[in-house]
Asparaginase
Amino acid sequence: MSHRRLLVLSLGGTITMLPAATGGIAPTLGAADLVNAVPALGDVADIVAESPARLPSPSLRPGHLVQVARRIEEGFAAGMDGAVVIQGTDTIEESAFILDLLVGGDRPVVVTGAMRGADAPGADGPANLLAAARVAASDEATGLGTLVVLNDEIHAARFVQKTSTTLPSTFASPLAGPLGLVAEGRPRILGRVARLPVLSAAAGAPPEIALIRWAMGEDGRMLAVLPGLGYAGAVIEGMGAGHVPADAAQAIEDLATRIPVVLASRSAAGPVFTETYGYPGGEIDLIRRGAIPAGMLSGLKARLLLGLALRGGAGTAAAAFAPYQ
């Protein structure tokens, strides 16, 4: 493999955290600090390291990632062979999906982070960064879109989920499994995913989208207030394959006449159904009432896709979800 050029962008997160005077750990290190702490990176690629933010990942907003996508596009136009984005693990699955939606072309984009702070015994940040760089610089990752690499596993952005609050093995892809792994210092891709339509990063940040997780006995009374609160759309995480109680179906129909409503599942994996359950509140009923099925996407990711799609107007929502069915 010839020597590559990588753009490394750090947004903060546990991988950058050191003890703070106020107690606990807080974002401290920048991209250059992280890169300099892993000398083996010099054998992987020539690296341009930048720190667009130093935030814990719960404070990241979609607009931050839209700007990151634009910076990656600029880097690729200037000849970068791949990009690594470093951030906190709490929102990696969302950030990676935004980048997958916005960064086109075949060059690899890899998101990584750490579950342990930089000064913790057994800190996993350096190993994760090195593995991510090896994937981003590889021919094997070409054409796979945005990937998440931690704990030596390679995951597709559209499938990956954080599954544990504490374990270094927290990231999994329950629907499809990892695409591969890093072993003996090189990526080994075991499966591939096709690129799906890419949206424009130049269109800016998405509008606000509500995410409602349905619970037993909920009747949907809160839905009526969402448009007045400024939400441009809503994602409903229904029970099972996309279901709500019968007495909530009308509330969803009423909301769908005002803003786009997407139907996802609160389950960990599996697509929303479209043609199996016909009872009031089942997915057939809700789709007839105007809900758009999220397909294979989790509620978190359906929320992001809906927001980015709505930058083109309300009429673009259903078409945006069609490739994910």
In short: Helices lie at 31-36, 62-77, 92-102, 125-136, 249-256, 283-288, 299-309, 317-321.
